[in-house]
Each structure stands twice: as structure tokens, then as C-alpha cells.
Specification:
The chain has helices at about 40-75, 85-120, 135-140, 145-155. The protein is elongated and about 85 Å long. The protein folds into 2 domains: about 35-120, DksA, coiled-coil domain (Four Helix Bundle (Hemerythrin (Met), subunit A), Up-down Bundle), CATH 1.20.120.910; about 125-155, no CATH class. Helix 1 runs antiparallel to helix 2. The model has no long low-confidence stretch (mean pLDDT about 85). The chain is an all-alpha fold and about 160 residues long. The protein is built from 4 helices and no strands. About 15% of the residues are buried. Bound molecules: zinc ion (ZN).
């Protein structure tokens, strides 16, 4: 019998390993201050979980806050009550609106922090680019400024 044609199998190429899939957040690339221990995987996951649950909580808060505002708007629309009542309803509405704006702002910050965690820029000051410090990030997971720049901003 004719020998089967053997298709030349390319020898398993050594030396060009398949590049590993990129890891979303490599803990060792997150910045720390001199003297601080590098971020561990557990600490990064902890920060991510905390931010994630905050995002979920804030979203729920925003929904109920917006529902409250909508309810107050509706109430004030058909209100024929006395002026004192209307006045206090307006104050409540202002308060609810301020609350919702605040929640929305915090939600944006938490989302932003999660994004920075994925990009590996988490823990870097957005003004000077220096490390914010792990201890500070763990105390304020949404922090985007080093202490100096934060204080400078607050003085403005
Ligand atoms: Zn800074």
C-alpha cells in the first residue's frame, strides 16, 4: 500500500508562548506610598467589592429619591392646601432634589473609582500623578486626590 501522505506537522514551536490574557487589575501595579506594603489581590478585591456594593446601594437610593421627588411634584401640582403646607412641601422637595444630586455625584465618583481600578490608575492623584497612599485609599475608596491636592482644592 502507498504510504499515507503525512502532512508535515509543524513541530510544536517552542519559544513563542501564547500571551496570557490580560488581567484586569494587577495588584502590584497599583500605587502605594514609599514605606507602604504593595496592594495584595485580596485588598484590591476588597476595594472593588466595597465600591461595587456602594454603586448598587447608591443606584437604589437614587431610584427611591427620584420617586420621592416625583411624588412631591405631583402632590404640589394638585395642592390647594394652605400656604404653610405648600411651603413645607417645597422645602422637602428642595431637600430631596439636593439629596438626589448628592447621591448622583457620589455614584459618579464610585463608578469612576471602579474604572480606575480596572485601568490600574487607582490610587494615583489625578492632579499631580503621585501615589495617594494605600492607607488613604482604604479609608476613602473614592479618593482621586493626594492629601496635599485635596487640601489645596478645599482651600479654593
Ligand atoms: Zn496630588
Amino acid at each position: 500500500m502507498a504510504a499515507k501522505k503525512t502532512v508535515a506537522q509543524p513541530a510544536a514551536t517552542s519559544g513563542s508562548p501564547v500571551p496570557a490574557a490580560p488581567i484586569a487589575a494587577q495588584p502590584d501595579v497599583l500605587a502605594v506610598l514609599p514605606g507602604e506594603e504593595p496592594w495584595t489581590t485580596e485588598e484590591v478585591e476588597e476595594a472593588r467589592a466595597e465600591l461595587f456594593s456602594e454603586v448598587e446601594r447608591l443606584k437604589a437610593e437614587l431610584i427611591s429619591s427620584e420617586a420621592a421627588v416625583a411624588g412631591l411634584m405631583r402632590d404640589s401640582g394638585d395642592s390647594t392646601g394652605d400656604e404653610a403646607d405648600t411651603g413645607s412641601k417645597n422645602i422637602t422637595r428642595e431637600y430631596e432634589l439636593a439629596l438626589a444630586a448628592n447621591t448622583r455625584e457620589t455614584l459618579t465618583q464610585a463608578d469612576h473609582a471602579l474604572q480606575r481600578l480596572d485601568e490600574g490608575t487607582y490610587g494615583l492623584c489625578e492632579v499631580c500623578g503621585n501615589p495617594i497612599g494605600k492607607a488613604r485609599m482604604q479609608a476613602f475608596p473614592r479618593a482621586t486626590l493626594c492629601l496635599d491636592d485635596k487640601q489645596r482644592q478645599e482651600r479654593r
